[in-house]
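JOB MANIFEST
job_type = single_chain_structure
chain_count = 1
residues = 213
[input]
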Amino acid sequence: MIKASFRGGYDADNSDASASVVVNTGGINLRASTTGDTFVNGPSLNGLTLSVENPGFFNVDYNVQKKDVRFQFMNTVRVNEKPLNLTYTHSLVEDRTALDGTLLLDSNHKVSANYGFESGNCKVKYTYMHGGVMTIEPCYDFAENSWDLAVSRRIYDGSVVRGSYHSSTRILGLDWKINSSTNGNIKLSASVNLAEEKKMPKFTAESIWDFEM
């Protein structure tokens, strides 16, 4: 049986839409993603990305417009009997390489880091889960010398509310993910740039549908 899912999103501030279709063919996912540029002034290859992925092992993305291939490989090693999840990413045309690592200390604590080889930029994030319903995630960016903070909480119906603040950009954000067995999964987002004189909120909406063929 082939399983598929559809994800659609709309950015109200930029009047831009995006969509992706994922088809699962027995462990291997085939994905096609588009942006609003794909359909502006008629169908085109702008904003089109084709992907082949084996979750937990590798992803291969091909940006049709840029003719760029991005490889991503995942692996897990043990550090003092703790699992360390590693992700290596490289883009051929953009010539960018990054390494991500997440060390799971226990069920409530983990430390993540991201390093960009070209820029030398490094970000470190600590994740703490409290009571199985609330997650607190402070993050430090060494390049920007700035802190980010995100707090999320799961509510009674399985939905998740998440607030975030980025000190380098002074952007305050709020996300609400609604899980529905009848209407699919919906994500509503709002953000405000506190550095702007006119602090106008920006809104986006995204929906995910799963179906079988």
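[summary]
The mean pLDDT is 87.
The longest strand covers residues 68-79.
exit_status = 0
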